[in-house]
Structures are given as structure tokens and as C-alpha cells.
Write a structure and sequence with these properties.
nine-stranded mixed sheet; 320 residues; alpha/beta; UDP-N-acetylmuramoyl-L-alanine:D-glutamate ligase; four-stranded mixed sheet; binds adenosine monophosphate
Length: 320
């Protein structure tokens, strides 16, 4: 059998020290940030080249977690000052998150510099950061095969023009449901995804949290439920880990076509489910291929009706 195709992924995004309170407890100054959740999740599938900035206070343990996952840290800069700090609290049923603090620190003067060795990474993920910085990454990369971006409500509100410029230059885009509605003004998510597609990306992925995900190409829509969990501890970073699982699996797929994307969405779902089971990156920092495969099989099984393989089970109904 031929060895599976795997391509490295360049990720640029935030690296943070997060303080998070949920009904299940609290963590302070924990490893977080969009690029971190993405990189750890994707590292189970392929080589990840990380670009980001940390301050002098960034703990060695953070570096150890990334190194153990084999993440390439050549593009990690340590600047004088403190690491980007973010803090948030979830309400009783996780339906709302209140951001308590966003302190940019070393992020304030950060401009991504892509090391020469990373510039030809075939896959590029522009994790959630200011779209101006995402655009700076686009200027430095050389002939990527696939560019995917993520964003957040802040940039839709305050950097809309720059974000639209980035969207016009990417192949795929991730949004959560609220963001998709916010940027398009469409309440219906199928319509919202189609409207985002008109901004540029040929494939749009809308994350609906515990209600799963939908992917639209304009011509086709694929919809997948979330992995059913009986306890969520901390949903922070689930979207970024979802993207990491998705793009990592796509990097191992024979083709980045509709089938490859659908299968990769299942892996995204699996990585997101591990993320929300623990605080910070606890749930994903030391997974095994076996645990990932087991949950993938179980996710498939959740939607399968025993004995009906190959038979859609459509009743033939009497004429009325
Ligand atoms: P999510 O749960 O997908 O919204 O991602 C949460 C992560 O995003 C946390 O680890 C934060 O450190 C990071 N984050 C929060 N606000 C920002 C921001 N303005 N820019 C970049 N990253 C952020």
C-alpha cells in the first residue's frame, strides 16, 4: 500500500496565557491561544510549523508541551514583555461566555515573520488574529496549495474591510454560527454560508458548537452532529482544535476533495470533543492515535443504523 500523503501545515495565530472560569472550575495562566489549540490538534496528523510570539513570562512547560507534540518552533519569537493574556468566564449551561480581559502585551507590536523554511508549506492556516496580520502572512508565503482562515466577532465589527480582503484570498474559511450571521446579516446558516462564499472562499465551514458543523460549497451542503458528551468542562479553543483536526486529517487525505473534506470534518469533531473535556489544552495535549481512532469509529457508529449498511432504509409508503 502506498504511504499516506502528508503535507506540512503552517499556522500563524495567537499564543496566550488564558484564565478561564467554568461551572467545573478554573485555570489561571494556562497555555492557550488560537495557534496553540490548532497546532496541538493538527500535530496528531502531520508536521506543524508554528509562527507566533510569546513574552518573557511564557512558561517552559508550554514549550515542552509543543515540543513533545513535535511542533516546529523555529517561527516562535520570544519578545521582551509579557505574553498575550486573555480571561473569560462561562455561565452555568455554557450558553454564554463573557470576556473579562484581553491584554495584548507582546502581541501589540507583533508582525509575523515566516522563516524561509516555512514559506513553501503547502497548507496554511491563518488562525484567529487581526486580519491585517493575516494579510502580512499572505504576502510572505510562496505558492501554497491551500489557504484556510478563521476569525472572530471583534474583527467583523472593527476590521471588516481588511477581513473581507483576506476572505477574497483564501480557499476555505471557518466561522462559528454567530460570526456567520454577523458578517452576512443572514440568520439562516445555509444562506449565510452561501453569502460568505461570495466573499471568496470556495468552501465555508460553519461551527455550531454542541449542534455540530455544516460545510457548504454553494452547490453542496454537508452536515455533521457534534460528538455526544455527557460532560463539558471548558469549551475554550474547541473551534481552533476543530480546525486543527480537520486540516491535519486533510493533509493526510489522498485528495482535498469533497470526500476528503467530509472525512476530515469527522476528525475535527473528534479533536474538538477531546478539547472540551478538559481545561485549556489538558484534553488534547497527550492523546494517542488509538484514542483518536476509537472516538472516530464511535462517532461514525452514533449515526449508523445496525443492519442497514448500503440500504438507505427508505420506506415505500402507500399512495394517499
Ligand atoms: P475560541 O474558544 O475558539 O474563541 O478560542 C479561544 C482562544 O482564543 C483563547 O485561547 C484565547 O487566548 C484566544 N483569543 C481570545 N481573544 C483573542 C484575540 N482578540 N486575538 C487572538 N486570539 C484571541
Amino acid at each position: 500500500m502506498p504511504a499516506p500523503r502528508t503535507v506540512p501545515i503552517l499556522v500563524v495565530g495567537s499564543i496566550a496565557l488564558d484564565t478561564v472560569r467554568s461551572p467545573h472550575g478554573e485555570v489561571r495562566g494556562a497555555l492557550g491561544g488560537s495557534a496553540i489549540y490548532f497546532a496541538i490538534a493538527a500535530s496528531y496528523f502531520t508536521r506543524v510549523n508554528l509562527v507566533g510570539v510569546v513574552g518573557e513570562d511564557f512558561p517552559d512547560e508550554g514549550i515542552r508541551i509543543l515540543t513533545r507534540r513535535g511542533v516546529n518552533l523555529e517561527g516562535l519569537t520570544r519578545a521582551s514583555g509579557k505574553t498575550f493574556a486573555w480571561s473569560a468566564a462561562y455561565n452555568e449551561d455554557f450558553s454564554e461566555r463573557t470576556t473579562l480581559e484581553t491584554t495584548l502585551n507582546v502581541f501589540e507590536t507583533f508582525h509575523p515573520r515566516i522563516p524561509a523554511a516555512y514559506r513553501r508549506s503547502p497548507y496554511v492556516f491563518l488562525a484567529n488574529i487581526n486580519p491585517e496580520l493575516q494579510a502580512e502572512v499572505l504576502e510572505q508565503i510562496e505558492r501554497p496549495r491551500l489557504v484556510v482562515c478563521d476569525t472572530m466577532n471583534l474583527w467583523i465589527d472593527f476590521q471588516r474591510a481588511e477581513l473581507l480582503r483576506v476572505l477574497s484570498r483564501v480557499d476555505m474559511a471557518f466561522f462559528n454560527a454567530d460570526e456567520a450571521r454577523q458578517i452576512t446579516g443572514e440568520h439562516n446558516l445555509i444562506r449565510a454560508a452561501a453569502a460568505i462564499k461570495r466573499f471568496g472562499p470556495r468552501r465555508v465551514i460553519v461551527k455550531k458548537g454542541e449542534h455540530g458543523v455544516l460545510m457548504s460549497t454553494g452547490r453542496s451542503v454537508f452536515s455533521l452532529p457534534a460528538y455526544p458528551l455527557d460532560e463539558v468542562r471548558d469549551p475554550t479553543g474547541a473551534g481552533d482544535a476543530f480546525a486543527g483536526g480537520f486540516l491535519g486529517a486533510l493533509a493526510r487525505s489522498p485528495r482535498a476533495d469533497e470526500d476528503g473534506c467530509r472525512r476530515s470534518l469527522l476528525y475535527g469533531t473528534v479533536l474538538a470533543s477531546f478539547t472540551v473535556e478538559g481545561f485549556g489544552v489538558e484534553g488534547i495535549k497527550s492523546l494517542t492515535p488509538r484514542a483518536i481512532a476509537k472516538r472516530y469509529a464511535s462517532l461514525v457508529d452514533h449515526a449508523r443504523i445496525p443492519g442497514q449498511d448500503g440500504d438507505l432504509g427508505v420506506f415505500s409508503l402507500p399512495d394517499s
